[in-house]
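no rush on this but wanted to send it before i forget. what follows is a protein written twice so to speak, once as letters and once as structure tokens for the fold. mainly i need to know what kind of three dimensional shape the backbone takes. thanks a lot i owe you, the record is right below.
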Amino acid sequence: MSSFGTQEDYEDGFYIQNTMFPLQTTELRINQSPMISTFIYQIDNERLFDRDEHRHKTEIDPYYLSDSDQVVLGPNLAYPFKIKRLVGQSGMSYGALGSHAITALSKGLGQAGTWMNTGEGGLSKYHLAGNVDIIFQIGPGLFGVRDKDGHFDLSAFRNLAQQDAIKAFEIKLAQGAKTRGGHMQGNKVTEEIAEIRKVEPWKTINSPNRFTNIDNPQALLNWVTELQQYGQKPVGFKIVISSVAEIESLVTTMIETNQYPDFITVDGGEGGTGATFQELEDRVGLPLFTALPHFICKVRTTRHSR
């Protein structure tokens, strides 16, 4: 097992593109209110090998997207999600990180005014500690939205959709570090984790390779549409690209059926996880900087179809 990401060196390096005529700071379309209360380090005395420093509380200018630049997910739904930050947190489960990490991330992301993805392990009280916008991830194990037999529980989904903190739902078909089902040892399934995931405590959890109700693009889009209607909040899905033909089939089905997700998350093969094997982590799924151009080329013609 590997928990800290692949060690594979996919690229030599990346470079930031410069422009000959950059914008002045006053020309940037940004919203800098309200101010963010935080702590910064103040250096008191710096020496050759060490230094003295302290933290003090201050307020800093945020960099929110302007109203005209905000990304709106699900504009035709009852509860659209307005994204005012370009960067948020991708899926990381409470069961993998623990209460302290999830609490710290929630508070930091909440202060920054951005979003937090729960990962497939369900919603914990620690995700809600920072008044942050939540994207609830639904994995093939249906943790948090399943009944005692492991089937999708519509009432549990509706209860989650009624929570103000949850702004959107993400169906996780795969993730870059774990493109197949997951495995969690029973000794890690505490009573708290079991309650959150709606499983039995102290019993090993094996997530299936895929959702039992999704075996083709049409089935995926049908379920997306159903969840949009039931929850009236944005619904998207997360994919890992290995075959350009599969993406072409997915996009074609969207056009033919006029069914679209509110967003699509493209994950690369560079990610880390505590629930798979090294060979799957390193060798299955294209790296993001290879996968993303393929994906963009295929969806470009459908961007304004909805």
Observations:
- The longest helix spans residues 217-231.
- The chain has a mean pLDDT of 87.
